[in-house]
Amino acid sequence: MSPAAQHALFAAWLRDHAGLLHRVANAFATGADRDDLMQELLLALWRAVPAFAGASKPSTFIHRVAHNTALTWRRGAATYRRQLDRFATEPLPAPDSPRPGEDEALAAIYAAIRQLPAVDRSLLVLHLDGLGYAAIAEIHGLSENHVGVRLTRLRQRLTQLLQETTDELR
Amino acid sequence: MNSADLERAWRSPRNSADPAALATARDQLFADLKKRRRARRLFLALVLGALTLLSVRVALATLPRAGGPTIAPERDWASLVFLALPWIGFIMLTRQMLRHERGHQRAGEAIGDTVRALLDENATARAGLRVTAGLHGVTLLLLPLVVAQLRATGKAGDEILWPAFLGWPLIASTILATLWWQDRHRLLPRRRQLEALRRELERAD
Questions:
Q1: I want to staple A1 with a disulfide (CB 3.0 to 4.6 A). Which of A8, A49, A50, B108 is the partner?
Q2: Within an 8 Å CB–CB cutoff, is residue B64 touching chain A?
């Protein structure tokens, strides 16, 4: 693939599917880590462009790249140091304070999702993004039945976590 | 909050990327890509330069000169092996970097396959570190022989003693310490992270 074609496809994907990356980044990290993860997601997507053979829909491919990256992402040492520095010099923000453009309900949903183990988080985000069991199973390399069972339990767990958050706010 | 509220909030336009922040992140990505490419080239150039200097230095001391002693494998073998070791290390390092680059082409794989491949890559990287550390250890063991052979054939005098018995051991120790740190603080935690992820993926509900 020529660099011009790579640039064009990358730009088109960002235009049409940036929201997907935004949701994955928010589900897996907060604060400076979230920005670092977003950067990693963009980098992974850029590098993955030449590997896109058109066999699946671009959105499925981008979901796969994004979740692969988020699950295997390592928080960088620089970010960790930056966090320690900030921790030492600044007051901690409220745990559920919304990011710009994100209302309280969304902040509560993301906070609840981030309490789940990484793989469960990924399964739930894919499900909330509207992917079917078969597509999720293919992305994770799991059986459709396994995904169905896990998601049934996860939906209940998420509702329970959100209920707890709502009760705490009352 | 019930399921309907959840889905409504999730699908709301507010749950999407801020265009301005995205544009900044994209610009930063391309700047970062350039920086990474430059850093990689500089790193390879530095390693290659240092190796060439070292090899030329050893080669000048070992290879025959007009009117001087000739090269004889049975007499100069330690120098020849010493000369080859860093190049073996360099080739291994370059292959590892290329393998890492090829790893990015796995982007379209299922997550389970990616985790397994990353675990294999981690094991290969750790084995590579052990071999590199071993090669450095061999150079340290070999060095007294190299010095003895060069002095015996009159190819070097006392001037070789300081770099051989202080300079190189210091450099090799620093490299070995760096390799150890890399294994303990990067590769081992990475392996643990990936193993935990694999267990989580394979967990049956």
A1: A50
A2: no
